[in-house]
Write a structure and sequence with these properties.
Elements lengths: L2 H14 L3 E7 L7 H12 L4 E6 L4 H8 L5 E3 L2 E3 L2 H24 L5 E5 L6 E5 L11 E6 L1 H9 L3 E5 L1 E3 L5 E3 L2 H12 L4 E8 L17 E2 L1 H10 L7 H12 L4 E6 L3 H6 L4 E3 L3
Parallel strand pairs: 1-2, 1-11, 2-8, 5-8, 11-13, 12-14
Antiparallel strand pairs: 3-4, 6-7, 9-10, 13-14
């Protein structure tokens, strides 16, 4: 085999041998429904190959805050995280919800490891700085330790990641789970062929919020601009879509948004909304 042929063979083999990685973010009301969450985790356990699950917190943190008479503030769908709220979300997200998901996956023969961004220093962040709004202990991501995550994956572990990070000085931070999923998927896209799925209780991105059958099958930059201008894409969906486009720009192979109860079909590309880079 000549030199040029060997080079071509190397790159073809390298491309073929790239491992697949599924990064799944679960949120919305699915987390609050025991039966739906169990169904989702069964589907997650059936995904072939390497997989990472990033989860939100559902309504439990809000309920616990109400029970403890700790006022909650939301701005544009984002939680203002004061010190008392940080204590609650850390207990709920990185504790109760995370470990229950891990235990459920263990029962399905998936060797899962429940962590947050502070564990093994996998995600460092900084306290959000905003000129007009003090978000409190909310973190924006600085770095993702891809090598450490890969070490976990290569030992046969599936990661279950709670949306709590740290700043390197001992301060925990509440971090948006959609953004965390994008950051992890993007960081690992140079090492794996990454599929990123944003899953929740809807069938996909809907053109009419009250019509569950109005799924928009494909969103690209061109129709995204038109959808925002027309108001068909509501404010709550815009940050998720912005994260989806950023993931594609940073090397993620594909991004799908849809119903958590259709997880395997979402990965197969037969349902939901597919986000395209161009």
């Amino acid at each position: 085999m000549g030199y040029t042929s060997r080079i071509v063979h190397y790159f073809i083999f390298k491309k073929i041998s790239v491992e697949k990685l599924s990064v799944i973010k679960i949120g919305g009301n699915i987390i609050d429904n025991e039966a739906n969450l169990a169904s989702f985790l069964t589907a997650f356990s059936q995904i072939e190959g390497q997989k990472i699950l990033i989860h939100g917190g559902g309504k439990l943190a809000t309920k616990m805050a109400a029970d403890l008479n700790i006022p909650q503030q939301m701005v544009d769908g984002r939680r203002i995280t004061d010190a008392a709220t940080l204590t609650i979300v850390t207990m709920v997200y990185a504790g109760y919800i995370n470990k229950n998901m891990v235990a459920a996956l263990q029962s399905k023969n998936i060797n899962a490891l429940g962590i947050c961004g502070a564990d093994a220093n996998i995600i460092k962040a900084h306290k959000r700085i905003n000129a007009t709004i003090d978000y409190g202990f909310v973190g924006d991501i600085d770095t993702v330790d891809t090598e450490k995550i890969m070490q976990f994956l290569h030992t046969g572990l599936s990661l279950v990641v709670a949306p709590i990070t740290h700043d390197g000085t001992g301060q925990l931070l509440n971090t948006n789970a959609d953004t965390m999923a994008q950051a992890i998927a993007s960081a690992l896209s140079s090492k794996y062929e990454v599929s990123l799925v944003y899953s929740f209780e809807r069938k996909g991105v809907l053109s009419a919020i009250e019509d569950s059958n109005s799924v928009i099958p494909i969103i690209n930059p061109q129709n995204y601009a038109a959808l925002k201008e027309s108001g068909q894409v509501n404010e709550g969906m815009i940050p998720k879509l912005d994260n989806a486009f950023e993931a594609l720009q940073k090397g993620v192979s594909r991004v799908i948004i849809g119903d958590a109860l259709d997880l395997l079909q979402l990965l197969a590309g037969s349902v939901g909304t597919t986000i395209q880079k161009n």
